[in-house]
Write a structure and sequence with these properties.
Chain lengths: 464, 1009
C-alpha cells in the first residue's frame, strides 16, 4: 500500500511543479512590450513615427469626412453639402445632435492621439533605455503634438478634460478643465518643445516638427489669447527663418510634399499604400453631384470673395459644370494617381504666420508693419497692394481686410475660418444671417452623448 | 500579497482533498490487500452467452467484473469470455436492457438472459469526460444524445442534433446557410460579453478527450458573418454520443472552462466481432427548400399602394420620383423570394465504415461524403469529405490498454457575399425590371438599385480541413490502480475568400472597376497531454472510484487576412501573384497555454448513497503572472431512496427514486489573449509603432457558482419516468471589455466588473412508455425548460455604456422600447409616448422593458414501433418574442415591396388599423422608424415546429438472408417539416433578416454486410 501512496504523492508534486511554468507564453510576434519599445533609441523613435502615421488615420486630422478641415469648413460656411449626408448637414446647419457620430469620431480620435502622446511621454520617463539626447528630442516632438491636439479640442468644444497620463483609471472619470488651464498646459508643452527641438527638419521631411513648428503654433496660441506681443515675437522668428521657409510664388507648388512654405505636414504614408492625401479624394468632383464620395462643394459665399484678378481662384478652385449649375471645389491638392507620393496634407504653413503677425501688429498699433505683412500675401495672389490702394487705412478696417484675406487664403485648411469667427466674436453676426436656426451657443460643438453616458462627470455645452 | 494568500488557502483545499483520498484508501485498503497477480491464480476462464427474453443472442453486451474496470463485450452470437474468480460479480449492461449482476461461482459456462428495459434509464452509462458513470448513479446533471438520434437528422453540424432534445440547452441554427456555427447556450447567458468578436458564453467542446476552440471561425462574408462552425467537418455518422455537462458536479472537473457547460462528443469505436469484419453502409438523398416565405404584395396591390401614396401626399409621380409607376412595366410580376432563395437544393450523403475486433483488438475505419446544394440561383453548394479511424488494443491480462482515434474532415462551402440579399427578396418591387437580358447576362437597364442578383457575382469559397487525433495509453500498476496518459493533437485550417467580379457592378462602371479578392486564412493548432492516475476499489459495500491528473494544453492560432486588387483577368483571381496590389490587412498570432491539476473521488455505499467530489487547479496564460492560477471544486451527492426497505415495501408503484444535489464553482478565462500586457504593434504606415489597446495587469478569473437539486422518479416498473431539476448559476467577477470614455484614448479595457449574473431555472424530463408489447411500442418523452436570467448586481451601471443595454433586476437579453400610442387620428401616422415629455424621442423615452430571450422551451419526442417499422417525430417549442416583420419594410407608400398586412392601412379618422397612412412624405419616416423601436415593433414569435420526423423500416430476416445482409433498414427523414406560429415574418427564430432554416426531406438505406 505504501507504493500506492508514494505513487500518488510523487505524481501530485510532479504535476504541481510543472504546471506553474507551463502557462508562461512569449509575447506574440505582432506585439512588443513597452519596456522593449523604450529600451532603445530606435524603437522609441518608431513609437513617435507611429504617432505621425496615426495622424493620417485619425479622423480629426486626416482631412477626410470627419476631419476638422471638412466639418469646420461646413460649420464656417466655406463648404456646403451637395449629397444627402445627415451628419454633415447637421454641421452645415449648426444643428448638431448629441448623438452625431462624426462629432464622436472627431472627439475620440483626438483623444486617441493624446493617449499615444501620453504613452510615449510616460514610457520615456519610466524606462531608461533611451539616450538623453533622443529622449529630449522625442519628448519635445510629442509635447508639440499633444499641444496641437488640445488647441483644436479647446477651440471646438470649449472646456475639455485635460488628460496628461495614459492611466485610464484616473482618466475615465475626468471632468472638463477650464479653458485657461488647458491653454496653460498647451503653452507648457510648447515652451518645452521650443526649448528642446532642433532648427532643421530631419532629412528634409516636414513631417516631424522642429523648433519653428512649435513657435508657429505658439504664435497662433498667443494670437488666440490676444497676447499680441508674444504672437508677434514668435511669428517673426518663424518668418525670419528663411533657411527653412519662403512664400512660394507658384501656387501650384504650395501643397507639394515638403514645400518651402510648409511648417508641418502629415504624410499619406500613414496608411499603407496610400499615395495621396484625403483632401483631393473627397473634394475634387469626379462626377455630377449628388454623390456620396464627394459630398461637398464650395459655397457661393466663399466664391464671391474672389475678384477676377485673384489668381487663387484659378489655382485653388476647380469647377464641375452641370446643366443645373456649376459646382466649385477646392483644388489646393490634385489627384496624383499612382506616381508615388507628391503631396502631403498641410497642417501649418508660412502664410498663416504673416497673417498672425499682421493682426498682432494692428493691435500693437504698427499699421505700416501690418500692411506690409498682409501685402505679402496679396502680392502673391496678384491683388493690388493695400500700401498703394489705401495706405491710410484704419486699424479696424485693416483687421477686416486681414480676416477676408485669411478666408481667401486658408479656406478648407484645418477649419481656420470656423476658429477665426469664433475667436473674434463675429460668429453670431455672420452665421445668424445664413443659418436659419442659429443660436449663439452653436459656436461650440456638443460633447458626444456616448462620452457623457460613460463618464457622468462630463457636462454638456449650453444649448444642447 | 493578499492575493497570494488566497491562492495559498485554496491550495490547501486541494491538498486536503488529496489527503482525504489517500486516507480513505489506507483506511479500507489494508484489510484486503490482494495483489493483482496473486489474484490471477484464483481466476478461471468463464464462457458465457447472453440472450434476450426471446432467446435471441445479444451481441455487444458490456460484461464487466464488478469493482474493476476489466471487461469485455459479447460477440455476435452473444458469447463472451472472461477470466474471473468465483467470488467475482459480473455486471452485464446493454442499451435497452436492464443491467444484470451475477456471481461467477465455479461453473465455467454461464447462460444468461437480459431483461428488456422499457426505458433506457438503468442500463445507460454516460460519459462525464474523465470518467463514465451509470445514468442511474450519476450525481451530476448530464444530458445525452445517442448516435441513433443523431442519425435521424439530415444535418451538417453535430450541435443541430441537440435542438429540442435536451433540457437546459438552447441551440439555434439562426439561418438556412449551411456550415454556420449554431448558437449554443447551456443554461443561459453567463457572461455580459456576448458580441461576435468578444464572447464569453461559448461552452467547452471536447471531441474524444481533445478540447476544441469553440469560438466560430471568423468569416468575411455577409452571409457568413456570424462565423463558421468549428465542428462542421465531423462525420455525424461516426458519432457515438454527445453528452452535455451542465451542473457544478459534472463541470467542475473542467474547472475554468466549465462555466458555460461542456459538450462531449465521442466517436464510434470498433465492436467485438470475433475477428470478423462487418461493413456498414448508410446513404441517403433528398431535397431541401426554405421552410417559409413571407406573404407580400402582388403587382396590382403594390401599384395601387404607391399611387395612393402620391395621391395622399398631393404629389405628381414623375420618372425620377416614381420609376416603378412611370418607367417600369405596370403588369410584370416577379416573386422575388422565389427568384432569390426559392430554389430546391439536393442533398446526398454516403457513409461507410468497416469494423472488426477480437478480444484484444478492435478497430473501425470509415469515411463519408456529403453534398448539399443551395436554394440560391447559381452554382453554390456544400461538400464534405471525412475519414476516421479508431483502434483499440489491450493485452491478454488487461494490464496494458491502448486506444487511438483520428478524425479527418474537409469541407468546401461555396456561397456568395450577399449583403442585403434577404432584404432584396422582401423589398424589391414586384414589377421591377427583368433580372436577365436575353443573352443571359444580368440586366441593369432601368434598375434604380443594384440588380439583386449582382451579389452572386461575389462568390465566396470557404475551405476547411480539420484533423483530430487522440491516443490513450494506460497501464495497470497494481490492482485497482492504473496509470493513464491521454494525448491529443488537433489542427484546423480554413481558407475563406471572396472574389469581386466586375459583373457585380453596373456595366457603366466596369471601366473603373478593379478585380479584387479578399482572402482570409485561419489556422488553429493545439495539443494536449493529460497524465492521470485512476484508482478503483471496492471495500465491502463501499466502492471508491478516484482519479487524479494533470492537463497541459497548448493552442496556437493564426489569422491572416489579405486583400488583392487589379487582376488582369477573372481566371487569374486565385493567384495572388497576378494581382497588381496585394495588401496584408491583418496578421495575428495567438499562443495560449493552459495547465491544470485535477482530481475526482466518487464514493458509493450500498449503491444507494453516492458522493462525488471534484477539484481542479487551473492556470491560464490569459492572465498576468500574479493572477494566473485559480481553484475550482464541486461536491455532489445522490440518494437512491427507492432502494430503502421502507420505500420498497410501502410504495410498490415506485420503481425508482433518487434525490441528488450538487454545489460548486467553475470559472471562465474566455477573454482575448494578451490583454494584461503593455504592448505596442506596428502601425499600418511604415516604420511606426503604437499601442493598440489599454492594458490591465490585474484582471482575474470569472467565477461561476452553480447549485442544483433534482428529483428522479420511476413508476410502474419504470414505464413512466420523470426528472425535475432546479438549478441556479451565479457568475460574478465578470470579465468584460469595460467600457471607457474615449478621453482615456480607447473605448474599453479588459477588466473584472463587479456584476453578478444569475441563471436559474427548472428542467423537467418526462418519459413514458405508453404502450409496450412484443410487436408494438409507443414511447413519448417530453422535456421542458423554464429559464430565468437576471442581472442581480451591477454597481453604477448608469455610468457605463451597459446602461443602455442591461438593467439591474432584469434579464440580460432585454430590449428597451417606446410605448406605442396608436395612430394619430389627425396625421394618420404612428405615435409613441414621449415618456419624459421633453419634446423629443431618445433613450430616456424607451421605458418599456421586454425580455427577448426564451420564456420556456423544450421538445416532445415520440417513438412508435410496430414490428420492423419505426416512426419517430420530434416537436420543438419555444415561447419568445422577435422583431415584427412589419418594420423590416420601408414605411407604407414608399418604394419597395411590403408584407400583405400593409393593405390594411389607416385611411381616415376613426380607422382602427395597425398600419399607418400610406404616404411617402418625410413626415411619415420618423413615426414609422420610432415605432419600430416601440412595443409595436415586436411580435410574439413562439412556435411549435416539427423539427424532425423519421420513418424507418427494418428489413425482415428472410429478406436479409436472401440478399446476404446482416441487417438492413430503409428510411425517410425530414427536418423542419412545418411550424405552427402566429409570427408573420420569415422565421420565428431567425426573424426576417436571414435565410430561413431549410426544410429537408431525405430517403435512405442503411445496411450492414
Amino acid at each position: 500500500m505504501k507504493n500506492t501512496r508514494h505513487i500518488i504523492i510523487i505524481f501530485f508534486f510532479f504535476m504541481q511543479s510543472s504546471c506553474e511554468n507551463f502557462v508562461e507564453v512569449d509575447v506574440p510576434d505582432q506585439k512588443i512590450v513597452s519596456e522593449t519599445v523604450f529600451g532603445s533609441d530606435e524603437a522609441a523613435n518608431n513609437a513617435v513615427i507611429g504617432i505621425y502615421n496615426e495622424l493620417f488615420k485619425a479622423d480629426f486630422s486626416n482631412g477626410n469626412f470627419r476631419s476638422v478641415t471638412l466639418l469646420g469648413g461646413l460649420s464656417a460656411g466655406e463648404l456646403q453639402t451637395t449629397a444627402l449626408n445627415e451628419e454633415m448637414i447637421e454641421f452645415e446647419e449648426s444643428e448638431i445632435l448629441i448623438e452625431n457620430s462624426y462629432n464622436l469620431a472627431l472627439w475620440s480620435s483626438a483623444y486617441n492621439i493624446i493617449y499615444l502622446c501620453n504613452a510615449v511621454i510616460d514610457g520615456l520617463r519610466k524606462y531608461n533605455g533611451v539616450s538623453e539626447e533622443m529622449k529630449a528630442k522625442l519628448m519635445g516632438e510629442v509635447q508639440f503634438v499633444r499641444a496641437f491636439v488640445y488647441f483644436y479640442l479647446v477651440n471646438l468644444y470649449g472646456k475639455v478634460p485635460l488628460i496628461q497620463s495614459p492611466d485610464y483609471r484616473e482618466n475615465a472619470l475626468a471632468s472638463r478643465a477650464e479653458k485657461t488651464e488647458i491653454y496653460e498646459a498647451i503653452i507648457d508643452d510648447l515652451e518645452n518643445a521650443v526649448a528642446i527641438l532642433g532648427e532643421s527638419y530631419e532629412g528634409g521631411e516636414r513631417i516631424r516638427p522642429n523648433k519653428y513648428t512649435a513657435m508657429a503654433l505658439m504664435a497662433r496660441v498667443y494670437l488666440f489669447l490676444e497676447d499680441w506681443e508674444k504672437a508677434e515675437t514668435y511669428s517673426t522668428q518663424v518668418i525670419n527663418s528663411t533657411e527653412n521657409y519662403a512664400l512660394l510664388n507658384d501656387l501650384d507648388q504650395v501643397f507639394l510634399a515638403n514645400s518651402q512654405e510648409a511648417i508641418w505636414q502629415i504624410s499619406p504614408a500613414g496608411r499603407a499604400l496610400s499615395v495621396i492625401p484625403n483632401e483631393p479624394r473627397i473634394f475634387i468632383l469626379t462626377s455630377a453631384p449628388p454623390q456620396s464620395n464627394q459630398p461637398t462643394a464650395i459655397t457661393k459665399k466663399q466664391l464671391m470673395l474672389y475678384s477676377k484678378k485673384d489668381i487663387r481662384s484659378e489655382y485653388w478652385l476647380g469647377v464641375f459644370p452641370t446643366d443645373v449649375k456649376d459646382y466649385y471645389y477646392p483644388t489646393k491638392y490634385r489627384i496624383h494617381d499612382s506616381e508615388g507620393i507628391k503631396e502631403y496634407s498641410m497642417v501649418m504653413r508660412l502664410a498663416e504666420q504673416y497673417f498672425i503677425r499682421a493682426e498682432a501688429k494692428v493691435h500693437l498699433e504698427n499699421l505700416t508693419g501690418a500692411i506690409t505683412d498682409l501685402d505679402k500675401i496679396r502680392e502673391r495672389a496678384n491683388l493690388d497692394l493695400i500700401m498703394n490702394l489705401n495706405s491710410g487705412i484704419t486699424g479696424e478696417a485693416l483687421l477686416d481686410s486681414i480676416q477676408i484675406e485669411r478666408q481667401r487664403e486658408l479656406f478648407t485648411e484645418w477649419g481656420h475660418r470656423w476658429l477665426d469667427i469664433k475667436r473674434t466674436g463675429m460668429a453670431p453676426k455672420i452665421l445668424s444671417g445664413t443659418k436659419t436656426s442659429w443660436q449663439d451657443t452653436d459656436v461650440l460643438y456638443p460633447i458626444p452623448e456616448e462620452e457623457r453616458s460613460k463618464n457622468p462627470n462630463l457636462t454638456q455645452n449650453n444649448g444642447y | 500579497m493578499q492575493n497570494k494568500h488566497i491562492i495559498r488557502d485554496r491550495c490547501i483545499l486541494l491538498v486536503l482533498l488529496l489527503i482525504f483520498s489517500i486516507g480513505t484508501y489506507s483506511l479500507f485498503g489494508n484489510n484486503k490487500t490482494i495483489n493483482f497477480l496473486e489474484l490471477a491464480d484464483y481466476q478461471h476462464r468463464v464462457k458465457g452467452q447472453v440472450k434476450d427474453s426471446n432467446g435471441i443472442p445479444i451481441p455487444g453486451v458490456n460484461v464487466e467484473i464488478k469493482g474493476t474496470s476489466y471487461g469485455t463485450f459479447t460477440d455476435k452470437e452473444g458469447y463472451f469470455y472472461v477470466d474471473a474468480a468465483p467470488t467475482d460479480v459480473l455486471i452485464l449492461s446493454y442499451i435497452g436492457f436492464k443491467p444484470l449482476e451475477v456471481t461467477v461461482g465455479t461453473s465455467k459456462e454461464l447462460s444468461l438472459a437480459l431483461e428488456e428495459d422499457v426505458t433506457n434509464l438503468e442500463a445507460v452509462t454516460v460519459n462525464a469526460g474523465y470518467y463514465t458513470v451509470k445514468e442511474r448513479e450519476r450525481t451530476g446533471s448530464i444530458a445525452k444524445v445517442t448516435s441513433e438520434e443523431i442519425e435521424l437528422q439530415p444535418i451538417v453540424s453535430p450541435l443541430q442534433s441537440l435542438e429540442g432534445r435536451m433540457a437546459g440547452v438552447e441551440v439555434e441554427q439562426g439561418s438556412g446557410i449551411t456550415g454556420l456555427a449554431p448558437t449554443i447556450r447551456i443554461r443561459g447567458q453567463n457572461s455580459l460579453r456576448n458580441s461576435r468578436n468578444d464572447n464569453g458564453n461559448y461552452p467547452l467542446y471536447i471531441i474524444d478527450g481533445i478540447p476544441i476552440v469553440s469560438a466560430p471561425i471568423q468569416s468575411p462574408g455577409t452571409l457568413t458573418i456570424t462565423g463558421l462552425d468549428p465542428l462542421s467537418t465531423l462525420n455525424l455518422n461516426n458519432i457515438e454520443s454527445i453528452e452535455v455537462l451542465k451542473d457544478a458536479d459534472a463541470t467542475a472537473i473542467y474547472g475554468s472552462r466549465g462555466a458555460n457547460g461542456v459538450v462531449l462528443i465521442t466517436s464510434k469505436k470498433g465492436k467485438l466481432n470475433q475477428g470478423k469484419s462487418s461493413l456498414e453502409i448508410n446513404m441517403y438523398s433528398g431535397i431541401s427548400e426554405v421552410s417559409n416565405k413571407m406573404k407580400l404584395l402582388n403587382t396590382r396591390q403594390y401599384i395601387s399602394m404607391r399611387k395612393q401614396a402620391f395621391e395622399n401626399d398631393g404629389v405628381i409621380p414623375t420618372e425620377t420620383n416614381a420609376p416603378d409607376l412611370m418607367v417600369w412595366d405596370q403588369n410584370r410580376y416577379t416573386d422575388w423570394q422565389d427568384v432569390l432563395f426559392g430554389g430546391t437544393a439536393f442533398a446526398n450523403n454516403i457513409n461507410m465504415a468497416i469494423s472488426s475486433g477480437n478480444e484484444n483488438t478492435t478497430y473501425r475505419i470509415g469515411g463519408s461524403y456529403n453534398k448539399l446544394g443551395s436554394v440560391f440561383p447559381g452554382d453554390f453548394d456544400y461538400n464534405k469529405l471525412t475519414a476516421n479511424v479508431n483502434f483499440s488494443h489491450k493485452s491478454d491480462n488487461n494490464r496494458f490498454q491502448l486506444s487511438f482515434s483520428a478524425n479527418y474532415g474537409v469541407d468546401n462551402n461555396k456561397v456568395f457575399n450577399g449583403a442585403n440579399f434577404v432584404n432584396y427578396a422582401l423589398s424589391v418591387p414586384p414589377n421591377a425590371p427583368p433580372i436577365y437580358k436575353d443573352d443571359g447576362s444580368l440586366n441593369w437597364e432601368n434598375w434604380t438599385v443594384d440588380n439583386p442578383l449582382a451579389v452572386l457575382k461575389q462568390p465566396q469559397d470557404i475551405k476547411t480541413d480539420n484533423l483530430l487525433t487522440n491516443l490513450n495509453i494506460s497501464y495497470g500498476i497494481i490492482k485497482g490502480l492504473r496509470f493513464k496518459i491521454s494525448t491529443g493533437f488537433s489542427k484546423l485550417d480554413n481558407e475563406d475568400g471572396i472574389k469581386y467580379y466586375k459583373e457585380r457592378y453596373n456595366p457603366n462602371r466596369w471601366e473603373r472597376i478593379k478585380l479584387g479578392v479578399n482572402q482570409n486564412y485561419s489556422k488553429r493548432r493545439s495539443w494536449i497531454l493529460e497524465p492521470q492516475i485512476i484508482f478503483n476499489q471496492t471495500y465491502g459495500k463501499i466502492n471508491i472510484d478516484a482519479l487524479m491528473g494533470g492537463t497541459f494544453q497548448d493552442n496556437k492560432s493564426n489569422f491572416l487576412s489579405i486583400t488583392a486588387n487589379g487582376y488582369p483577368d477573372k481566371s487569374l483571381m486565385s493567384n495572388l501573384n497576378a494581382a497588381e496590389e496585394v495588401r496584408i490587412t491583418n496578421d495575428a498570432n495567438i499562443h495560449y497555454r493552459y495547465a491544470a491539476l485535477f482530481g475526482r473521488m466518487g464514493l458509493n455505499w450500498y449503491k444507494k448513497y453516492f458522493l462525488n467530489i471534484t477539484g481542479r487547479r487551473d492556470g491560464s496564460s490569459r492572465f498576468g503572472s500574479d493572477r494566473r492560477f485559480s481553484n475550482f471544486w464541486a461536491i455532489g451527492g445522490a440518494w437512491i431512496f427507492s432502494g430503502e426497505k421502507v420505500i420498497e415495501e410501502n410504495i410498490s408503484f415506485l420503481s425508482f427514486g433518487k434525490l441528488r444535489a450538487s454545489y460548486g464553482t467553475t470559472g471562465s478565462d474566455q477573454i482575448p489573449d494578451y490583454g494584461f500586457l503593455d504592448t505596442y504593434e506596428a502601425t499600418e504606415g511604415i516604420g511606426g509603432l503604437y499601442p493598440t489597446q489599454l492594458f490591465n495587469p490585474d484582471y482575474s478569473w470569472e467565477v461561476n457558482k452553480k447549485i442544483e437539486a433534482s428529483l428522479q422518479l420511476g413508476f410502474l416498473n419504470d414505464h413512466f419516468n420523470m426528472e425535475v431539476s432546479w438549478y441556479r448559476n451565479r457568475s460574478s467577477n465578470q470579465l468584460v471589455g469595460y467600457p471607457l470614455p474615449a478621453i482615456t484614448g480607447f473605448t474599453s479595457v479588459q477588466a473584472n466588473l463587479p456584476a453578478l449574473v444569475q441563471n436559474s431555472g427548472w428542467e423537467v424530463l418526462l418519459n413514458s412508455m405508453n404502450l409496450s408489447s412484443k410487436n408494438f411500442s409507443w414511447q413519448t418523452s417530453i422535456n421542458m425548460t423554464i429559464p430565468k436570467n437576471k442581472l442581480l448586481e451591477f454597481d453604477n451601471i448608469d455610468d457605463t455604456s451597459y446602461a443602455s443595454q442591461y438593467r439591474v433586476g432584469h434579464p440580460l437579453n432585454i430590449s428597451f422600447f417606446y410605448q406605442y400610442d396608436g395612430i394619430n387620428q389627425e396625421t394618420g401616422f404612428y405615435q409613441i409616448v414621449d415618456a419624459n415629455e421633453d419634446g423629443r424621442y431618445n433613450n430616456d423615452d424607451r421605458v418599456v422593458i421586454k425580455n427577448m430571450g426564451r420564456e420556456y422551451y423544450g421538445g416532445i419526442n415520440n417513438h412508435i414501433r410496430y414490428k420492423g417499422l419505426s416512426l419517430q417525430f420530434l416537436f420543438e417549442y419555444i415561447k419568445q418574442f422577435n422583431g415584427s416583420h412589419i418594420f423590416r419594410a420601408t414605411p407604407p407608400g414608399f418604394s419597395g415591396n411590403k408584407p400583405v398586412e400593409f393593405l390594411e392601412a389607416w385611411e381616415r379618422p376613426g380607422d382602427n388599423e395597425n398600419i399607418q397612412k400610406v404616404s411617402q412624405s418625410f413626415l411619415a419616416i420618423d413615426p414609422f422608424y420610432n415605432t419600430a423601436n416601440s412595443t409595436m415593433g415586436i411580435e410574439d414569435a413562439s412556435f411549435l415546429r416539427l423539427k424532425n420526423i423519421s420513418l424507418s423500416y427494418r428489413l425482415p430476416k428472410h429478406i436479409l438472408k436472401k440478399i446476404n445482409v446482416k441487417s438492413g433498414q430503409i428510411y425517410v427523414h425530414a427536418q423542419n417539416l412545418f411550424t405552427i406560429t402566429s409570427y408573420k415574418g420569415l422565421d420565428p427564430q431567425g426573424g426576417s433578416g436571414v435565410v430561413p432554416p431549410l426544410r429537408t426531406i431525405t430517403c435512405g438505406i442503411k445496411v450492414t454486410l
